[in-house]
Amino acid sequence: MTDDAPIGSAKPFDPALFLDPAASGNPQPFYRSAREIGAVVPGPFGGLEVMRRAEVEYVLQHPEIFSSAMEAVDLGQTVPLIPLQIDPPQHLKYRKLLDPIFAPKQMNLLEPDITRLVNELIDAFIDEGSCEFTTALAEPLPSSVFLRLLGLPLSDLDMFLGMKSGILRPTGADPAEMKAAQQATAAEIERYFAEAIADRKRQPREDILSRFLAAEFDGARLTVDEILGICFLFILAGLDTVTDTLECFFAYLAQHPKQRQLIVADPAIIPSAVEELLRWETPVAGVARVAIKDADLGGCPVHKGDHVGVSIGSANTDERALPDASSVKFTRDASRHLAFGGGVHRCLGSHLARLELRTTLREWHGRIPEYTIAEGTQLRYGFGLRQIESLPLIFG
Predict the structure, then answer these.
(1) pLDDT digits (tens, 9 = 90+) for 50-85
(2) Which tens digits make up the pLDDT trace of 168-221?
(3) What percent of the chain is helix, strand and coil (3-state, nearest 5)?
């Protein structure tokens, strides 16, 4: 099979389309064309990409075949990202510890604080009649919530944003330079949290880091490396995915005024609108796995050691699972999307993310019901994580 040959089909397929800027901004037509070719197509960096809902769910639900360990994604760190890069049965230990911390009841206690923070951010720009949405709200909101949750100083926000970008968007003239920059940033993150953990050992506080140190599972406590792995994942998930989701949501709503008016007219539909926009936009467009056994996916052989990309965005818009998948309906009774993943590695922070998204849509549209994207703006979306380079909004 050549790099651009389809899998299980005579139709041509160019894996470079995964990196096409037009496809990243408007991915649904690309997803559809890939699914028409087969359940699995060649990936943009070698390996395979799973496109159809049934096969995506199979991969996510079978970690004994498709592992998310460090071999799947190496971000330059020396410790695995916990619990993401730990497979069953060890994975259960960490979820039993972390799930209660991020349970809906616990997260809902944060709603008044998140509501206040959203309005404080809006206060800073509403009289100007415009804002650069990312820097004005999409970045500072989830980042501030994250820092408060971990008991870290808000004065470190800019440093954390820099470290996050250094991991997810490393700079360099070639892959080797980019990997070296990523490793240097990873070492910086690990040093920071090692010092924070040592500080909590000396003087425990009422925060999550102190809870990690005190937690026990089957009579054993978490090691420093285990806590580092948890914190490393938190900084990436807590500082980036909600930011990207807010950008995608507001870019969509700014360009679809009739849909936006549904929210303004009836804020009660916001929870279902959030689910539908998560399905349609799918900001975390894909996740990575590595096969640890030979397998078959939709007639495509998968060999041990193969890198397998899982296209969450394509699965969420697969008409085989949802006949009217190409329609955006804020009033759907339920939206069985996979935006938070599936199986044992389903996103730990999904309840917090939903709370931040619902609160932001409610408070923003209660104060700024009409807005557009600044004239002449060409939205530039990233790949994998669909962040938007700049989102200038005009209102008034």
Answers:
(1) 999 999 999 999 999 999 987 777 889 999 999 999
(2) 888 888 889 999 999 999 999 999 999 999 999 999 998 889 989 988 877 888
(3) 55, 10, 35
Q: For residue 101, give the 3-state DSSP assignment.
A: coil
Q: CA-CA distance, 163 to 172, in Å (whole number)?
A: 15
pTM of the model: 0.92
State both tokens at 347.
């996103």
Question: What does the angle CA 175 – CA 314 – CA 291 come to, to the nearest 5 degrees?
Answer: 60
Residue whose token pair is 């507001």: 250
Give the chain's domains with CATH numbers. 15-395 (1.10.630.10)
Count CB-CB contacts under 10 A for residue 262.
17
Residue 177, Cβ neighbours under 10 Å: how many? 12
CB 142 within 8 A of CB 242: yes
Q: Is the dihedral of CA 359, 142, 61, 168 positive or negative?
A: positive
> Would you say 251 and 395 are in contact if contact means Cβ atoms under 8 Å apart?
no
Give the separation between CA 391 and CA 165, rounded to whole angstroms.
Answer: 18
